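Protein folds are increasingly written down as discrete tokens. With that in mind, we are printing a sequence and the tokens encoding its fold.
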Amino acid sequence: MANYYCQYCGSKWNSISQLTINPCRNSPTKKHILYEGSEKAKYVCKYCGSQWPDILSLTANPCRNSPTKRHRPAL
């Protein structure tokens, strides 16, 4: 079974429909947006280059270079 992640908050869902139907506290649209990259051993912020062990940790922390002030995963 595949896992689907939100690129703004890093939450994990079992289906895209579950992900898109629920609200997201970090997204500018207040909806989860699908992270379209693959699962990785480390995730890199596309704004500052810092590395994190999982997408949830990456998106939970602030980023000084991001327009939303949160790290966002690079594809």
Helices lie at 16-21, 55-60. The mean pLDDT is 93. The CA atoms of residues 9 and 43 lie 13 Å apart.
